[in-house]
Amino acid sequence: MPAKLPPTYVGLDISSDQLDYSRSENDEGRCAYTAEGIAELIKKLQVLLHARVICEASGGYEKRIVAELLQAGIEVCVVQPGRVRAFAYAEGLMAKTDRLDARLLRRFGEKIEVRLAVPTDPALTTLRELLEHRRQLTRQLIEVIGRLSLAGATLRKLLEKQRLFLEKQIAAVEGMIKDHIDQNPDLKQKSARLQEINGVGPVLSATILAYVPELGKIESNQLSALIGVAPHPDDSGLRNGPRHVRGDRAQVRRVLYMAAVCAARTNPILRAFYERLRANGKPAKVCLVAVMRKLVHLMNKLILNPDFSLVR
Questions:
Q1: By the 8 A CB rule, do 23 and 10 touch?
Q2: pTM recorded for the entire structure
């Protein structure tokens, strides 16, 4: 078989209304972020040999163009902005414009190996949107409840109405999430499987299914690192620094942390695990992260092996 051609990297800077691209130092341009502009960009990329687009996660603006590029058969890598900015500092580049960012992204792709994006299942896209809406409503509810204790009589009435409204909205969205999962046989089966674990409820199972499509497809240690619950060493010479967790699935870690708090109290096995770590002098948060990691391993095992059963 012929050897696969090396990719031709293309940097793509995305904003709300325009797309700046850099195919080489002498081949750069800009397209409007419209259906016509996307079609124009795809046409320019399809003439390249093995084009691979490098772009940043741009608060959601990247979703449409990434989906269009993948549908057109063009490889895409979506990277975190912090990594690209650190690369710019390493190069000594302090200036920042859309065109410079496109060039920077192209050079980043040429130097750094990045994971390829894959098309997102439409069912997961809908589930993510519902979960994100629930998260925003929950944040608003927390803010309203926080203001209640300091509110006067007139404001309190308004805040109470707002609180009731938000609670009803959250309940409605949670019902939509449940219905959406129930209507998809694969999601329904996996959700029920995950909730076999004492401490894993509907919110965590939906979050894991929505944001961790790698569940059941890779090893548990890799999954822990991906989510950001695997401690990384910080040693130098004779110094043994404290381990810290890092990762780019913050929305998963937030929900997983609360599930770990629950599991450390109600799950007999995980409670014993947590208490043993505490008895050995480990800080409470270190113990909770360890419980989070255990939950990830258990969930991955349940999906990976249909014959695996839990002993409560």
A1: yes
A2: 0.83
Biggest CA-to-CA distance, the chain: 78
Q: Count helices and strands (H / E) in the chain.
A: 12, 7
pLDDT of amino acid 257: 94
The closest of 303, 120, 115 to 219, measured between CA atoms, is 303
CA atoms within 13 A on the CB side of 166: 19
The CATH number of the structural domain formed by 8-111 is 3.30.420.40
Calpha distance 83→62 (Å, rounded): 17
Q: Where in the chain is the domain with CATH 3.30.420.40?
A: 8-111
Distance CA 98, CA 62 (A): 14
* Per-residue pLDDT tens digits for 12-39: 999 989 999 999 888 899 999 999 999 9
Residues 6 or more apart whose Cβ sits within 8 Å of residue 286? 277
pLDDT digits (tens, 9 = 90+) for 228-285: 888 877 778 878 877 777 776 888 999 999 999 999 999 999 999 999 999 999 999 9
**Can you tell me the distance from the alpha carbon of 116 to that of 112, in angstroms, rounded to the nearest whole number?**
12
